[in-house]
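Below is a filled-in request sheet from our internal design queue. Each sheet records the structural input a requester submitted and the sequence that came back. We keep these sheets so that new team members can see what a complete request looks like end to end.

REQUESTER: design group, bay 2
PRIORITY: normal
MODE: inverse folding
CHAIN LENGTH: 349
BACKBONE (tokenized):
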């Protein structure tokens, strides 16, 4: 007979909680929960696994390269952008909990009707594949998602229903397809990270209750655009490069050019990510609804800050689905100092 106290299981996976267990436990702690939101999260995680599967075979199957289309953002659409979009839309349609999808890769909001009705009560806005220009060179890319409730009293899922400020999000997360695949999300009760174990096909709770450091030593910005930065930002860049033992400067530049990856590193290690207004992108490059809002929700839940340099991202009232915004996001102290330079409250000594 096997002595269960001493028998080795051959692995230690059983000590991790799965994403599904975690979601169900959270759901049970909410008094009137119907399980619909939990099912929505499950649908998103299933799509993430499918996209992960495709991604791991990139280079072997024909998913590198461009579709030949220019997307609504005016950017070259990669085959993998289109594929990731398709997989998420398909999973959300099949799941039935989502009534409207807004995607960076689709010009209009996509209403979802089951039997002629919008049955689901959640709106999902997403960047199906972030950092896709990096995909052919094997750099980490990701998916970013943002979840809203269909507003009270709204009978139909219209575009207006999707134009809610970030502060109204009820969930947000991202998946980073990196050296391992991770799903990180929040529902407004802290941030938790799950690593995909490909052998059992489950996301396992590897990073419970993530808190981002108050300050860090890394800054991420495309400094090639330096000449078109506003004065305050130019000064801030000079400041981060100056030697100062007390604050650990000069900071290190770390810019992957894949927002989800730069953000993930900063979240865990401390740092600031900036995509400011530039000459070619006067409103900034990143999208308010697909990139800035969900990451702002996550970073705030982890103790960090996100602003456009003047206004907190989550307070911005959206005008349109594909709206862009300047973005300063990361460790609280670092974002505050950057803001002080931008607003002329601080100068180089
Ligand atoms: P996407 O691939 O979804 O279009 O987003 C690309 C974004 C972001 O991931 C990255 O940080 C930024 O573009 C890089 O822009 P630059 O090449 O202008 O620095
Ligand atoms: Mn993106
Ligand atoms: Mn994208």
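RETURNED SEQUENCE:
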């Amino acid at each position: 007979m096997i002595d269960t106290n001493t028998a080795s299981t051959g692995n230690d996976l059983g000590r991790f909680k799965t994403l599904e267990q975690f979601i169900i436990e959270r759901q049970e702690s909410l008094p009137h929960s119907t399980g619909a939101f939990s099912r929505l999260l499950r649908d998103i995680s299933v799509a993430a696994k499918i996209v992960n599967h495709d991604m791991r075979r990139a280079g072997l199957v024909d998913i590198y390269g461009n579709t030949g289309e220019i997307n609504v953002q005016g950017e070259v659409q990669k085959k993998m952008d289109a594929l990731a979009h398709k997989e998420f839309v398909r999973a959300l349609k099949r799941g039935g909990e989502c009534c409207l999808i807004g995607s960076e890769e689709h010009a209009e909001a996509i209403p979802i009707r089951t039997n002629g009705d919008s049955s689901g009560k959640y709106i999902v806005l997403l960047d199906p594949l972030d950092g896709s220009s990096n995909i052919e060179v094997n750099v980490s890319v990701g998916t970013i998602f943002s979840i809203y409730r269909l507003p009270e009293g709204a009978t139909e899922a219209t575009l207006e229903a999707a134009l809610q400020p970030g502060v109204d999000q009820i969930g947000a997360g991202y998946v980073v397809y990196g050296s391992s695949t991770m799903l990180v999300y929040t529902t407004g009760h802290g941030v938790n990270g799950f690593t995909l174990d490909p052998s059992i096909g489950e996301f396992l709770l590897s990073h419970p209750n993530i808190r981002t450091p108050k300050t860090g030593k890394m800054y991420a910005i495309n400094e090639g655009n330096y000449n078109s930065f506003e004065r305050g930002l130019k000064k801030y860049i000079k400041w981060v490069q100056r030697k100062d033992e007390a604050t650990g400067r000069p900071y290190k530049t770390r810019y992957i050019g894949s927002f989800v990856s730069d953000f993930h590193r900063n979240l865990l290690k401390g740092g600031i990510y900036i995509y400011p207004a530039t000459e070619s992108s006067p409103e900034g490059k990143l999208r308010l609804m697909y990139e800035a809002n969900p990451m702002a929700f996550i970073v705030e839940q982890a103790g960090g800050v996100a602003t456009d340099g003047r206004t907190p991202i989550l307070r911005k009232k959206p005008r349109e689905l594909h709206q862009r915004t300047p973005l300063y996001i990361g460790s609280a102290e670092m974002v505050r100092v950057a803001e002080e330079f931008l607003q002329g409250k601080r100068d180089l000594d």
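SHEET NOTES:
- The domain at 13-207 is CATH 3.30.540.10 (Fructose-1,6-Bisphosphatase; Chain A, domain 1).
- The pocket of manganese (II) ion (ligand 3) is lined by residues 81, 104, 127, 129-130, 132 (CB under 6 Å).
FILED BY: M.R.
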